[in-house]
Amino acid sequence: MYVVRTSSKFYRSRLQHVLQTWISLASQHTYFVTDKLLPSVSHDHLILTDKICGQERHAMNTLCCKTAHDFKLFHRHLTNYDWFCHFDDDQYVNSRRLEEYLSTLDSNRPYYIGRNSWAKTLDRRKQPFPYSFWFATLGAGVCLSKPLVHLLQPYTQNIAQFVDGCLKENYHDDIYLGFLIFGYLNITLTKNYRFHSHLEKDFYNDKQKFLEIFNEQITFGFRLPNYCPVFLPNLYDSRSDRYRLRSMHCLLNPHIDECQMRMHKLVLNVTKSFR
């Protein structure tokens, strides 16, 4: 199950780009946490937050409130899926590689998977649980197995409970989630460095390295002007593919008919330029 956190104000600048790319391959299993109804998204595949979470702000209580809605969706669909993943609207997800990776793990065990947000553990001193712990940044994507979602039910069964926990501990949503999983359930983060957020300053800097590894990566963060693969061949016009996501989508999924057509056209144009 893929849950994408977004906002109506980002529909044109972010969401429509992922709807046209990776989500098109996983739309049946993709759900949205958002403030208002969205164009091109079925009403039964989203959950609205505007009345409960209030004004869209990048504040602790708002983010925790929206993440609590992830779990509302997770619990609602607990019998339908083995894996439950959170992504933001400024991420491209290589769903083929994600599903290949998850298939190598035992979905009957409690797994907390993602990219550690900091280079070292969070050094917690206060009670309860005065221990250091790893947490995964939600901005790179986080996946939980069904047993872990089930174990988290006592702490995530209602919105106010999760938000109050964040505020009490003074932790943002991804830190609080990591704290719950380690402190209360004694489960550590399974790190995966093929998950990437837009905060990785060097990810798109080395063109040669990126081209060597991008096919194996699971998530890609994007944001203009520097955090997107602008060096990729542009299979679409710049206006419709400002982040090069559609071009990257075709390079990752060359079996798609439209992508075959676009790449064939590019090859022809390059060939003509050398004549």
TrEMBL record:
<dbReference type="GO" id="GO:0016757">
    <property type="term" value="F:glycosyltransferase activity"/>
</dbReference>
<dbReference type="GO" id="GO:0012505">
    <property type="term" value="C:endomembrane system"/>
</dbReference>
<comment type="similarity">
    <text>Belongs to the glycosyltransferase 31 family.</text>
</comment>
<dbReference type="InterPro" id="IPR003378">
    <property type="entry name" value="Fringe-like_glycosylTrfase"/>
</dbReference>
<keyword id="KW-0472">Membrane</keyword>
<dbReference type="Pfam" id="PF02434">
    <property type="entry name" value="Fringe"/>
</dbReference>
<dbReference type="GO" id="GO:0016020">
    <property type="term" value="C:membrane"/>
</dbReference>
<protein>
    <recommendedName>
        <fullName>Fringe-like glycosyltransferase domain-containing protein</fullName>
    </recommendedName>
</protein>
<keyword id="KW-0735">Signal-anchor</keyword>
<keyword id="KW-1133">Transmembrane helix</keyword>
<keyword id="KW-0328">Glycosyltransferase</keyword>
<keyword id="KW-0812">Transmembrane</keyword>
<feature type="domain" description="Fringe-like glycosyltransferase">
    <location>
        <begin position="3"/>
        <end position="223"/>
    </location>
</feature>
<keyword id="KW-0808">Transferase</keyword>
